[in-house]
Amino acid sequence: MNINRYIDHTTLKPTTTLDDVKRLSMEAVEFDFAAVCVPPPFVNAAKTFLGSTSTAVATVIAFPFGYSALEAKVAESVLAIIDGADELDMVANLIAIRGGDWAYLEKEIATVMPIVRNKQRKIKVIIESGILLEDEIVRCCELYGRYGVDFVKTSTGYAEKGASVEAVALMRRHLPANIQIKASGGIRTFAFAKELISAGATRIGTSSGVAIMKEAASLQ
């Protein structure tokens, strides 16, 4: 397993510095990670650090709570694309999910999707599976699957519970085959990453990418 190509090497702490982003980018180049995921103000810098390598630049939209106004999500998405982001990890409106306002959630994704698609970018919708009921996860899969997002993502990493094998497996059962799953939140070991991949994840969002690679190498 080439675990490196599953990894979105991530730094999203609110005190992230330019040096952090440079180090993250250089590690991503060294290990040929799928992407780096950085705060919106650092998208342009990460793009510069990565140059013409195969590592994509991802950033977050409405992070970490998801309840930004739709107009704010649109503005963040447009700016991220202008700055050079290849992939947008957007937090769904969790208040709407818990309140059962599926009409609002549909309006949200229907508004953002054309912006992303018109510029040939990828979108990952974060649903915070660790704090949702099973039927809410299923409804999310049905909605975002219908709109053809690139990934449904388990977690921001800021809720009390992150990725789980059970949630990934549930999502895989209820998503169309062409919709991928990004597992994130609390993934610090190669063993856990492998479990999530076996359950159906095709991306692993983690700030422990280097440690995972070293663990994988030690097992060969």
UniProtKB/TrEMBL annotation:
One of its GO terms (molecular function) is deoxyribose-phosphate aldolase activity. Pathway: Carbohydrate degradation; 2-deoxy-D-ribose 1-phosphate degradation; D-glyceraldehyde 3-phosphate and acetaldehyde from 2-deoxy-alpha-D-ribose 1-phosphate: step 2/2. The active site is at D89 (proton donor/acceptor), K153 (schiff-base intermediate with acetaldehyde), K182 (proton donor/acceptor). Its EC number is 4.1.2.4. Keywords: Cytoplasm, Lyase, Schiff base. It is an enzyme of class 4 (lyase). The keyword Cell wall biogenesis/degradation does not apply. It is found in: Cytoplasm. Its main location: cytoplasm. Signal peptide: none annotated. PANTHER family: DEOXYRIBOSE-PHOSPHATE ALDOLASE. Catalyzes a reversible aldol reaction between acetaldehyde and D-glyceraldehyde 3-phosphate to generate 2-deoxy-D-ribose 5-phosphate. This is Deoxyribose-phosphate aldolase.
